[in-house]
Design a protein that fits this description.
It contains three helices and no strands. It is mainly alpha-helical. The longest helix has 28 residues. The chain is rod-shaped.
Length: 74
């Protein structure tokens, strides 16, 4: 009977340690600041790809050009 009790206590302690580890990992993963920084870095990385970067520059130049045409036609 004593062996069973000790075994159960060890199992409970191991389960507590696993739970604590899981909770710590969830706290790190759910940190809003970390999520925001990771998202910002992913967006900046994507925007720095030549295809995206030059497409956005071209679209911006087009908008500016069309705006200037519209302004000076009046």
């Amino acid at each position: 009977m004593a062996k069973d009790t000790e075994s159960i206590e060890r199992e409970i302690e191991a389960a507590r340690n696993r739970l604590a580890s899981t909770l710590d990992e969830l706290a790190v993963r759910a940190d809003p600041q970390r999520i925001a920084n990771n998202t910002k870095n992913a967006i900046l990385t994507k925007l720095n790809e030549p295809k995206i970067k030059y497409s956005l520059i071209g679209a911006g130049a087009l908008v500016v050009g069309l705006t200037l045409i519209k302004v000076f036609r009046r």
